[in-house]
Amino acid sequence: MTKIYQSIVALLVCLNLNACSTMQALYEKYAPQNTINTTKIAEKWHATLPHNGNTKHLTQFWQQFDDALLVTLIEAAQKESATLASAQTRIAQARFTRTQANAALLPTLDGSASTSRSVQQPATNISIGGPNQGSQSSGGEPINTTQAAVQASWELDIFNANHRAYTASQAQENAAQASWHEARVAVAAELANTYFNQRFCTLQASVLQADVSSRAESLRLTEIAVSAGFSAPTNRHLANASLADATHQLKAQQAQCEIEIKTLVALTNLDEPTLRAQLQAQPFAPHHAASLFALEAIPADVIAQRPDIYAAEADLMSAAADIQMTYASSLPKVSLNGSIGWMWLSGGGFGTSDGKTWSLGPISITFPIFHPGVKEAGLAKSVAKYEENAAIYREKVRNAVKEVEQALVNLHSTEVQQADIAIALSGYQASFDSTQTKVNAGFANLIELEENRRLLIAAQNNMINNQKLRALTWVSLYRAAGGGWDKSALSDIGNKK
Question: Are strands 135-137 and 142-156 parallel, antiparallel or unpaired?
């Protein structure tokens, strides 16, 4: 028997050494940090960075618009978001998995208690010391049995399979937490885009309303001229068509403004009349700040603060751990069981007795013998999953750089266009004022004035469009830069809703 135990121990030692060697090889070949370090990131941004900002302003981004209603609506949207609720559920699921994996590393304890009352038949008398010395009953009387015990079982993690599962579950929990922050930023950005679309839509509708009024006045003056014989009837048709075209654009713009309100209602779950009253009560002015926050000059610094990149890293670590866990699952498993308790016996003609009860064992060893191709197929699946996550990580890094640089290009474009648009608007305003002066002095007619008015209105509309694009681009850059997220926020995620 001793030789058998010695043989088993020797076999386990040999398997352990071989398994550890294979585990190390897998760890070195599928190391997440190698993938992360070899993923190429540009050394600098190939776009103009915003100036005069500050990195800390990224965490105070929405407050910088000086729009209390915007902040209130963002908070309402985040509270009502199904996306955030789903992300919160994924965190809870990941934590449960991590707790299970951690429990597998430790012994499990279960308590048990039982009581019984029994009678043994037939009753028998046992003589003690001869016929004249008396007898003792060994049956026929009730026997009471009460027992309490604590049972323990423990799977010895000889090949670190359970440790690998715990590592993978930790990575998945981190990924779920980072995804919650990503969803939070996405919801805020979606609400802000809708809010700005609605606000600027209203401003554009006001400009189009002025355009309609100008064209209506031109039609009135043209009809007077045609009636007096100073203008051809064709001009009346052109003026009427021009008014119809402007009216059509105004109605389309008003419909778009209504759609944006419906979207805001859906995002925030606010009562529509209440929302309309808030929009009406809160004045809106386009934000003219040159820079709301600054970016790090090195792309890698910005990439590191994006929650989706961190989540992709965590997925990569989880996939690497899964490879080693899959390999370890094909190795022998050793389990140890034991219990300790106390038993009380009474009745049956022998009085009362009590004492400790305990057991150690069995020590069980299970190992695969014949599972054709299962180990190889499982390992191939885990390796393929790692390669997929590695490709996803590299793609996310490339897309992150692309999103930031596209936002920077658009931001710079709106900045340089703003100066040209301002010059054009100033010129058209001066021309209109000059024409107005000529009309008052009798050197120009009203039709000429209305034509200058429409040029001025078009310039005003261009200004609003550019301001709108600039606001939306800042939101895009905010999201592309990670929304002010940092890894230290992971520890507080459980207390946030």
Answer: unpaired
Give, as one character, the DSSP assignment of residue 289. -
272 and 178 inside one domain = yes
CA distances from 109 to 332, 339, 359, 363 (A): 23, 9, 14, 17
For residue 496, what pLDDT band results from cuts at 50, 70 and 90?
very low
More confident residue, 496 or 381: 381
Residue 294's SS3 state is coil
CB 119 within 8 A of CB 191: no
- Mean pLDDT rounded to a whole number for the chain: 83
Give the contacts of 213 (CB within 8 A, at least 6 positions apart): none
Report the C-alpha gap between 487 and 172 in whole angstroms. 15
Instruction: Please give the single-letter amino acid code of residue 413.
Output: S
Asked if residue 49 is part of any domain, the answer here is yes
Regarding whether 149 and 226 lie in a shared domain, the answer is: no
Domain of 439, CATH number, reads: 1.20.1600.10
The rounded distance, in Å, linking the Cα atoms of 325 and 334 is 16
361, amino acid identity: G
Check whether residue 269 and residue 321 sit in a common domain.
yes
Tens-digit pLDDT profile for residues 53-99: 777 778 889 998 989 999 999 999 999 998 888 888 988 988 888 88
Q: What is the per-residue pLDDT across 414-438, written as a single tens digit (0 to 9) for each?
A: 999 998 999 999 999 999 899 888 8
Q: Could you tell me which of 70, 47, 68, 52 has the C-alpha nearest to residue 471?
A: 70
Q: What is the pLDDT of residue 374?
A: 78
Beta bridge partners of 364: 335
**Residue 243, CB half-sphere, CA atoms under 13 Å: how many?**
17
- Are 140 and 210 contained in the same domain? no
Measure the CA–CA gap between 300 and 437, rounded to whole angstroms.
59
Residues 169, 83, single domain; the answer is yes
Q: Which domain, by its residues, includes 460? A: 22-105+161-331+385-495
Q: Which residue has the higher pLDDT, 35 or 434?
A: 434
Amino acid letter, residue 472: L
Both 93 and 115 in a single domain?
A: no
For residue 23, the model assigns a pLDDT of 66
Strands (E), 164-216: none
Same domain, 79 and 115: no
Helices 446-480 and 374-441, axial angle in degrees (round to 10) = 160
Name the domain count of the chain.
2
- Which of these, 468, 486, 430, 405, lies nearest to 198 by C-alpha position? 468
Instruction: Tell if the pTM clears 0.90, that is, is over it.
Output: no
SS3 199: helix
Same structural domain for residues 235 and 283? yes
Residue 275 CA to residue 264 CA, distance in Å, equals 8
Residue 285 has pLDDT above 90, yes or no: no
